[in-house]
């Protein structure tokens, strides 16, 4: 399908193509060819509508037989069979299908633009180029070029290309003009609005394959049905080979269109997960999505001009007011898939409050918490956001503000801000007038602490519950020990004969130490200074004698044959008796003693 004299016509032609296999030369290098990405395809239209007031235009250039204009990199021959004869030919130009054809074409075409149009390629993405003094920008996709800039510069570029290549050009110069690029229709509605529509033939193909072209389906208000999905049933049988091939064809078409239908990206991603093993439930979801697209086929995206530095949520102020603003919104559906328990990352990118790209991706890892899933989603979002910001800085006139990543998970947000991964610019941090006070630092530390606690609670609830129970038990035990604790009392064990007496010495209130006693050791109280250990041991010996007498009386009933005289003699020679009342018994052995940190044995 081509446009000749502002009329769409169909042309049929035949071309010679090559068929080259990678297994014949597996170690061949230098075959990479840069191509455009869906991340940046909408930036050129956005730049055009932003600079429309400066007299910018937009054009789409198609180079005919691009590969046939490139010379072979090395001598190449091919064979053609005509009946029983085999003819050999030498190829001087590249053919579609050769492995190095695309790389050689890109290298020669970009070099020609640089030499004759003074274009400059972006280092991070060489398929993006700009004209001198940022008066225009372009996007290369194989043999197609989409460019926006000052009209005189674009016209000079077309004249240079027509000298070497056979080109066809479509222009947007005034409201009502339109062009097609990558099978998308761009229409300038007004000087401040540009609509981007997907080609209708893709939807017609979907309706034909799914069988909804001639049938009247029910009204579909959302890309996916609500409630339980048919793929979540246990008895979801697989499709046969023919229907499975149709399913993969439809999903391939949807993957090509998903960048231009952001409301259906989640559903398309979900259907793409069943491409290896399509089921009857996935086929039902495919028909539901096709019916939704058919019902809303009149909808399209519109890019409009906006103020520089004014985002959807963030607003640049002060000296950053004139800087272009890139906002990146990140979100995650934690364990959204009930079968694999994998999370889904969602992101949207806005330049000066205008949507330029959105995506829905399945995370490769299984997140154990919502904060972890938000972390993976934010990292993926930041990577794409940095690329978009680099493209904006390379193409747009003026400065670009730092990337703003917006996340709705508080635990992840606090952790990320603590690590200084997010925050103000270097100028804001270096400003001495914004130094925080002591109270603000204290509040910041407390907020960080509670943020870490919240993140830990969300990530490990079972471990936190067990730790809390252990802490409560320990606090209760310490409190009980403090309440019911008794003061330790010194204990003296006296062994006399076969009897051991244990007790705590009591210090009489009216007892005064004699001058013959040794001075007390350091650290003893006044009551301990007046304590007489010899008197206390004599008392202990008397108690031991009484216990010994009790034992002898108990033993006398069992052994009556023992003479009373022997018992009396025993009692007379007992320690502490009247015969030895004032002397310390010889068989008294001090086993251990401790009187309020004063060591008794040193006094004896």
Automatic annotation (TrEMBL):
Stretches with biased composition (Polar residues): 220-231
Residue ranges of the TM segments: 463-484
Keyword set, alphabetical order: Membrane, Transmembrane, Transmembrane helix
Listed Basic and acidic residues bias regions: 565-585
Keyword rRNA-binding: no
Record's keyword annotation contains Transmembrane helix: yes
Region (Disordered): 217-236, 505-526, 547-586
Descriptive protein name: True protein
Organism of origin: Symbiodinium necroappetens
Lineage, uppermost ranks: Eukaryota, Sar, Alveolata, Dinophyceae, Suessiales
């Amino acid at each position: 399908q081509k446009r000749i004299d502002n009329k769409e016509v169909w042309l049929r032609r035949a071309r010679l193509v090559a068929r080259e296999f990678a297994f014949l030369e597996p170690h061949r290098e230098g075959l990479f060819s840069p191509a455009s990405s869906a991340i940046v395809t909408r930036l050129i239209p956005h730049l055009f509508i932003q600079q429309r007031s400066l007299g910018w235009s937009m054009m789409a250039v198609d180079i005919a037989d691009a590969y046939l204009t490139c010379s072979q990199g090395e001598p190449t021959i091919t064979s053609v069979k005509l009946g029983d004869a085999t003819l050999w030919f030498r190829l001087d130009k590249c053919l579609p299908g050769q492995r190095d054809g695309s790389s050689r074409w890109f290298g020669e075409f970009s070099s020609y633009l640089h030499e004759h149009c003074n274009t400059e390629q972006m280092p991070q993405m060489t398929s993006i180029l700009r004209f001198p003094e940022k008066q225009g920008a372009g996007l290369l996709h194989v043999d197609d070029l989409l460019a926006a800039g000052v009209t005189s510069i674009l016209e000079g570029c077309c004249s240079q290309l027509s000298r070497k290549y056979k080109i066809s050009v479509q222009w947007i110069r005034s409201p009502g003009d339109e062009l097609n690029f990558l099978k998308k229709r761009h229409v300038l509605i007004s000087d401040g609005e540009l609509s981007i529509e997907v080609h209708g033939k893709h939807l017609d193909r979907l309706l034909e394959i799914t069988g909804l072209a001639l049938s009247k389906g029910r009204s579909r208000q959302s890309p996916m049905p609500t409630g339980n999905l048919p793929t979540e049933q246990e008895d979801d049988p697989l499709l046969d080979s023919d229907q499975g091939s149709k399913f993969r064809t439809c999903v391939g078409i949807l993957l090509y269109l998903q960048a231009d239908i952001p409301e259906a990206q989640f559903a398309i991603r979900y259907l793409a997960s069943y491409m290896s093993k399509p089921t009857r439930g996935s086929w039902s979801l495919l028909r539901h999505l096709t019916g939704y697209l058919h019902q809303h086929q009149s909808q399209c995206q519109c890019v409009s001009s906006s103020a520089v530095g004014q985002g959807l949520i963030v607003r640049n102020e002060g000296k950053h007011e004139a800087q272009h603003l890139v906002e990146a919104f990140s979100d995650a559906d934690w364990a959204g898939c009930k079968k694999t328990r994998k999370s889904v990352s969602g992101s949207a990118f806005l330049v000066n409050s205008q949507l330029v790209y959105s995506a829905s991706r399945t995370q490769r890892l299984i997140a154990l918490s919502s904060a972890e899933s938000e972390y993976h989603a934010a990292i993926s979002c930041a990577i794409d956001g940095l690329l978009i910001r680099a493209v904006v800085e390379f193409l747009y006139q003026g400065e670009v503000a730092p990337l703003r990543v917006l996340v709705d998970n508080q635990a992840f947000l606090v952790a990320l801000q603590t690590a200084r991964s997010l925050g103000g610019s270097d100028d804001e941090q270096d400003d001495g007038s914004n130094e925080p006070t002591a109270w603000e630092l204290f509040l910041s530390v407390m907020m960080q602490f509670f943020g870490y606690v919240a993140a830990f609670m969300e990530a490990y609830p079972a471990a936190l519950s067990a730790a809390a129970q252990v802490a409560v038990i320990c606090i209760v035990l310490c409190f009980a020990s403090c309440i019911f604790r008794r003061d330790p009392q010194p204990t003296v064990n006296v062994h006399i004969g076969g009897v051991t007496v244990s007790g705590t010495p009591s210090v009489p209130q009216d007892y005064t130490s004699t001058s013959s006693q040794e001075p007390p050791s350091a650290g003893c109280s006044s009551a301990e200074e007046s304590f007489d250990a010899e008197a206390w041991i004599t008392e202990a010996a008397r108690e031991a004698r009484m216990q010994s007498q009790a034992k002898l009386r108990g033993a006398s009933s069992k052994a009556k044959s023992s003479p009373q005289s022997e018992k009396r003699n025993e009692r007379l020679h007992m320690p502490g008796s009247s015969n030895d009342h004032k002397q310390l018994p010889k068989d008294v052995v001090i086993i251990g003693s401790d009187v309020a940190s004063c060591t008794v044995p040193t006094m004896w």
